Amino acid sequence: MFRHAKLAAAFLVGSLVIASSPTTSHADENSTTAIDIALEPDATMLQRAKAANTRLLGTFPKGFALDESHHPHVTILQQFVRTADLDKVYAAVDKVMSDEKPADWKLTANKYYYIPDAEFGLAGIVVEPTPDLIRLQREVIDAVAPFTEKTGTAAAFMSTEQGRDIQSSLIDYVSNFESIAAGEKFNPHVTIGVATQAYLKGMLAEPFEAFTFSPTGASVYQLGTFGTARKKLKDLHFGP
User: Fold this and answer.
1) Parent domain of 80
2) Number of domains in the chain
3) What CATH number should be reported for the domain holding residue 176?
């Protein structure tokens, strides 16, 4: 999810020790939506991600399970958009996806990684960036640009805790996604869960059998705690 250490550390601390949410006024509620435009991985990646997630939950039950409300995915863009313009966002991104053929791409997953903070880490399976992925990200950013807001509040996210599970550092990350996680800084991956650093160091030291997979679809999600894809808002279409 994050490559910048300070932001990542702040995010993980907030994720593991949930504090009160940033204050929101009534006028802020639902005026913006925090979205994740993501590629849906095929069964090969889903199997590997869910097996790794089950393993992490076995050692750290306070983490999160990959399930219908925490969809495994490869993020292309996270952004705040005006809720009133969501249909325009869907149409613009659907046009980008329909001009591409991601289902024909062969992407390579080559290692585990984690974002450290204190004794914990937020782990994922790294996907090698390709010219196709980087081009797609740029096209998506440009398509969504007319409908974006610089920032938002906890009300923009899907929350089961009335916003208390939405970290201020997550808001900062989504606000600054284009400058810290796009282009040369793009780090495509599938998040797999949380564990102690001690456990994750051992996991990363194990041999990793690289594998290839393909996207089977694309979606727009509403983001939630941990930067997860909590609620599917729209299915998108690939080109023929």
Assistant:
1) 5-19+30-233
2) 1
3) 3.90.1140.10
For residue 46, being part of any structural domain is answered with yes
Which residues, listed in sequence order, are joined to residue 107 by a DSSP beta bridge? 213
Sheet arrangement for strand 107-117: 189-196, 120-127, 107-117, 211-213
Q: How many helices (H) and strands (E) does the chain have?
A: 7, 9
216 with 41: CB under 8 angstroms? yes
Beta-carbon count within 10 A of 86 CB:
17
Look at the block and give the residue holding tokens 């980087």.
Answer: 134
Structural domain includes residue 240: no
What are the tens digits of pLDDT across the range 51-71?
999 999 999 999 999 998 889
The token pair that represents 153 in the structure block: 């509040």
pLDDT of 152-163, one tens digit each? 999 999 998 988
CB 79 within 8 A of CB 144: yes
